[in-house]
Amino acid sequence: MRLKTCLLPILAAALLIAAPARAEQWRSMRVEQVVTIYGIVVARSSFSSMVSRDRFKVEGRVSSAGLARVFDDTRGTVTAMGRFDNDRARPKGYVADYESGKKKKRTQISFADGRVYRAVNAPPVDTARDDWVPHGATDLVDVADPLSATLVPADREADVCDRTISVFDGVLRADLRLSPAGRGTLSAQGYQGDTVVCQAQFVPVSGYRRDNRSLHYIRDRSQIRIAFAQIGATGVYAPVGVTAETKAGTLTLETKRFELLD
Question: Do 251 and 244 form a contact (C-beta atoms < 8 A)?
Answer without folding.
Answer: yes
